[in-house]
Amino acid sequence: MSAFVRRLGFGGTLCLALIVTFALLALFAPWLSPYPDQGMGTPNVIAKLKPPAATFWLGTDHLGRDVLSRVIFGARVSMSAGLLIVAFSLLIGLPVGLLAGYFGGWVDEALMRITDVFLAFPALLLAVLLAAALGPGLLNSIVAVAVTWWPWYARMARAEVLVLRGQPYVEAASVMGVSQARIAIRHILPGAARPLLVQAALDVGPALLTASSLSFLGLGVLPPTADWGKMVDEGRKFFPDRWWVAAAPGVAIFLLALAFSVLGDALRNREGGKRRDTT
Amino acid sequence: MNRRDILKSAALSAIAASVPLAVPRWSIALAQEGSPIFTLAHPAGFPDLDPATSFSNDGAVLANVYEGLTRYIPGKDDQPATLAPVLATGWETSVDGLTWTFKLREGVKFHDGTDLTAEAVKGSIERTIKIAGGAAFIWSPVTAITAPDPTTVVFTLSSPQPLDVIAASGFAAWIISPAAMDKDNAWFNAGNDAGSGPFKIDRYEPGQRAILTRVADYWGGALEGAFDTVVFEIVEDAVLDQNMIEGGQADWTYGLPYENLDALKANPDLSVVVNPSFETLFGMYNTKKAPLDRPKVRQALSLAFPYDDVISAGTSGLGSRAKGVIPSGIWGHDTDAPVPNTDLEAAKALLAEEGLTDGNLELVMTYATSDTLEATAGELWKANLAQLGINLILQPMAWEAQWELAKSDPAATQDIFVMYWWPTYVTPYDYLFNLFHSEEAPAYNLGYYSNPDYDKLIDDAAALSGTDRTKAEAMFKEAQRMVIADNAAVFILDKPNIHIMRADVKGYQDNPAYGHVVFVNELSR
Predict the structure, then answer these.
(1) Three-class SS string for B34-97?
(2) Please, what is the average pLDDT of chain A?
(3) Domain spanning A2-278, CATH architecture
(4) Which residues of A touch B267 (CB under 8 A)?
(5) Predicted ipTM?
(6) Domain ranges in chain A?
(7) Is A132's CB within 8 Å of B382's CB?
(8) Hey, which of A105, A249, B193, B277 has its CA 20 to 30 A from A173?
(9) How many residue pairs from chains A and B have C-beta atoms closer than 8 A?
């Protein structure tokens, strides 16, 4: 354990613990939240906008639902949005970068110009437009953000591949008559993927934030599913007097996004350290 | 289009939310004790200040700058609604209701110094009809306007219509100076005006503010302690509006969340004025798509609607139960309309009768993104319907998208279309025609209701409303009962009109016929 803490650093370990806690809460939401039915959306109008107290630890929202239960259920949407956006982006970006970097020439030109087109738009604006066009829904908002996100991975992957392509072991494999596809997948992909995975860990936080922004703008999940960004939007209107409705999900977004970023940093430092060892 | 401004894009409000609180850019217009400046924290901008085409929140400015021939004064308690003379001092109609003669007020001057004449009235309305934008359709029954002498205007109609009520419209019925007849839309939107009202536009910064100053020789005079200057500060974020009214930087605002009103009521510096509005919220059932093509299924859904909960949770108890689609305060409102009360057992029995008990029924309800009240109604209804084995899918959409979808093939669109309606000018026909009259291509009849008997009844009633309003009113009520009996829609609630003012402002009377308009000349401090 102590070795583990040393590798990730104190902050990194703390953040990992926080992420694991959120993940467990999300996974076991129906058992861990005090009012699971309210977490899933059942209104309870009699108790609307109650301040935090023993019965409702974080108060209730405008439909009388327990904010704590809503935040716990909201973790499901927010975590899966953050992770899926990054996963989708990797899934598109990595192959595009690999092809462009490995084959070069017109393939490279064509693929990189397409990436440039996507990079030319302000990311959030493009995501908002896409989400508006696709209509609300969790999957739609994930797709909308991923579309603006993958070009960065494509760029990074291409740069890594360009470096690796010139390495002696790749040339050796080529001379020995190993097929192009095999070289790309077996010899280059693993090397190129590692820094991308670190970047992906760093990006989960911002991805989660972007997905929350879309929800805040009414382009996320369909009601009555709990979602942090949406909860902030609902609570914002009576923020000064009834702060808990917006504050609880806001703090949750802040903590989780921060945790992913710090953890990503810790991973990057570790990665950097290892590289120094090998050279 | 005026039904759409409530749907100001979510993105805009989010941008407004990010406006820093630190430097109040409206501080130039501090509403101090005894100040002759009346400041409105206005949550919506003014898309079009051309009096011929304005069809949105612009009325807030235009109603202080321009005047029409008449003004609608809503009924209160047992007092029937009346029409007050403004630029016209009297009017009469021929027996057949096809000729209307208006006598004009003498001694009225436009802001540019020209006199009000019959030619000006004729020219203004003809300009509006010619441009044919905004609410110009209200004049469609008019075939000819003549000016036999400088203080008499005669309208000839193709069908009998209540032209005195039409002339009181808050849109497309403003009279402008002859000097401005050939001016275009851009001229008006540059902050120029050509009205005869108590104020003239002094400065206009689109999306920021409009400043009006008092006209020296207004025919209606000024009260003691009247305001000299009217400042509209356009602040689209409710939180900022609330800060302004609480801090004394504004004298009047609206659109604050219902949940905050108790705190505002307790503030001795403020008064919270609650009135009925002409805005009603309802959900139209898709009568052309299974299973809602069956009246009993629609009835079951209406029986499952949590009316009281939506009023208490969505409007803090300030809204009122809708009695059909015509709200109170409008002639034709039916206080005894047989609307259902929430009764889940009865709903269950009806569904069983219709053979819908397998619990696989999915219905899609569309409503406007970021409209909290509609979302609340949907979420509470969904919870009730879940107990009946019906899954109500809540589909928030941008208004344009919601509307486009509904106008496509009825068999493939939403099951329930939720929206608000308020009239262009005050007549029950506006609600009954737009929402339920048969249509070849749906415009606003988005439940696709079609009933030839109903169509004939409201058309006949509309033709009578110029000459025999009592009979017309009875026919409108009968027609509305047909819609209720057929369960064409679920009638949710009539929205309250809530305005928040500084307590030292005197003389305020809300007039729901003009939306959120303040006639500042009637106020004093």
Answers:
(1) CCCEEEEEECCCCCCCCCCCCCCCCHHHHHHHCECCEEEECCECCECCEEEECCEEEEEECCCC
(2) 88
(3) Orthogonal Bundle (1.10)
(4) none
(5) 0.79
(6) 2-278
(7) no
(8) A105
(9) 77
